[in-house]
Design goal:
It holds the Pfam family GDPD. The protein has helices at residues 2-15, 38-45, 50-56, 84-92, 119-122, 129-132, 161-164, 181-184, 205-214, 237-250, 265-274, 276-279, 292-307, 333-340, 376-388, 398-407, and strands at residues 66-71, 95-104, 110-112, 137-140, 151-153, 168-169, 200-201, 218-223, 261-262, 283-286, 312-315, 321-323, 329-331, 344-350, 392-395. The chain is an alpha/beta fold and 410 residues long.
């Protein structure tokens, strides 16, 4: 095990470099990057040591856009996800790559939403009676007697693109005790804010491409797993994936600027076979690691993925690190196996765990005993970069990662 970890350490230090593009339209100097106070708060909150001193030494910048930083859904820590405002915030905070989770409307138009069926928690659809009645499952209030929470299910495939564009984006949340639809639209967690949740501008995939291209940044569209049975109105899963790629071709975007993603490995294999210029940097998202058995199986399958042409894998942060006998954060078996298989690693999602003073929850579950303050997220990030050797990191608040990336010369 010691030899394996040394291998990972060495490989990590040499491979932790950002994705680069030679495309002439790829110009990261268009934006005056602004980070705000959060990175400084986190650095100040860190335990004393060499890493804290290093990060403190970078306090005055300069800070530039970094391809190491993927804006996960834009900047949803404070802005409604997958809205124009969220994407603009991500770009301003130095994200070199911005994400659009791609799904489709009733009339098969591509739009940016984290899930095909999340409109009831990410938009104001339940406040618009003529659209709310079209939801797959209309709003049902909480029943204190039965102990059932309030619920609703509203999908992009329930409405047309024209109807979708009338909606306002809001912070992803709902109130389970709600007795009416207005109450249900609340529930924003305390570590987020409704300060910018006035009426977020929802985006089509084409609008997202145009906006991100205007910033000179890169793209990472995720083909979301459909929540309805495919084929849909004669439209197959393969045609859905192809339609995503076709939008970049139509817009004249170089494949070198696009990092397609999917949790469905068949989507990745489709791209490798039918769109090899896009497929060679397709990101195979991995959620098998959520269970111990799935983690073992996923780790064992990494060489097969590499053999089949996959170049980049992306599990959640927790799958890449663990604690050793001295309670130090070190690379996990998955990390070591991925590097041995010659796979690059992108991981998710930084700044999505809320307050870290109680261990950090889902994204830090394997290292929770070593996590006791918000500043510890930089300690984990440092291991991910210098020991695991990740190539990029999705973040709900890109400024936090941009600060580190610039300080470490990524």
């Amino acid at each position: 095990m010691r030899a394996a970890i040394i291998f990972s350490l060495t490989f990590g230090l040499t491979s932790a470099v950002p994705f680069l593009s030679n495309d002439k339209h790829h110009d990261h100097d268009r934006i005056n990057v602004q980070l705000g106070p959060r990175p400084y708060f986190l650095v100040n909150d860190m335990d004393e040591g060499p890493l804290k001193k290093k990060l403190q030494s970078c306090s005055e910048g300069p800070f530039r856009t970094s391809d190491f930083v993927f804006g996960h859904r834009g900047a949803p820590l404070q802005f409604p996800e997958h809205t124009e405002e969220s994407y603009r915030a991500a770009a301003r905070m130095g994200a070199g790559v911005v994400e659009c989770d791609v799904t489709f409307t009733k009339d098969k138009q591509l739009v940016c939403r984290h899930s095909q069926c999340d409109l009831h928690t990410t938009t104001n659809i339940l406040a618009i009676p003529e659209l709310a009645k079209k939801c797959t499952k209309p709003f049902v209030p909480a029943d204190p007697v039965k102990g059932t929470p309030a619920s609703a299910t509203c999908c992009t495939s329930d409405i047309t693109l024209a109807e979708f564009k009338t909606l306002c984006g809001k912070m992803d949340a709902s109130l389970p005790t709600a007795m009416n639809a207005t109450q249900y639209l609340g529930g924003t967690p305390p570590y987020r804010t409704d300060l910018y949740s006035t009426c977020g501008t929802l985006m089509t995939h084409k609008e997202y491409i145009k906006l991100v291209d205007s910033f000179g940044l890169n793209f990472t569209p995720e083909a979301k797993t459909p929540m309805i049975k495919m084929p849909y109105l004669g439209w197959t899963q393969e045609q859905f994936v192809q339609s995503i790629i076709d939008d970049y071709k139509t817009a004249g975007i170089s494949p070198s600027r696009v990092f397609p993603q999917s949790f469905l490995i068949d989507d990745i294999y489709y791209l490798i076979k039918h769109e090899p210029q896009f497929g060679k940097q397709a990101v195979a998202l991995d959620e098998q690691v959520d269970t111990p058995e799935g983690y073992r199986n996923s780790t064992a399958q990494l060489p097969t993925l590499a053999k089949n042409g996959v170049k980049i894998v992306a599990p959640a942060i927790f799958a890449l690190v663990k604690l050793d006998a001295q309670n130090r954060i070190v690379p996990s078996e998955y990390s070591i196996a991925a590097k041995r298989a010659g796979l690059d690693i992108v991981t998710w999602s930084f700044e999505r765990s809320g307050f870290l003073n109680n261990g950090g929850g889902y994204y830090y579950q394997y290292v929770a005993p070593a996590i006791n303050n918000d500043g510890d997220m930089y300690t984990v990030l440092d291991v991910l970069v210098k020991q695991v050797g990740i190539r990029a990191l999705y973040s709900d608040w890109p400024a936090t990662v941009t600060y580190y990336a610039n300080c470490m010369g990524l």
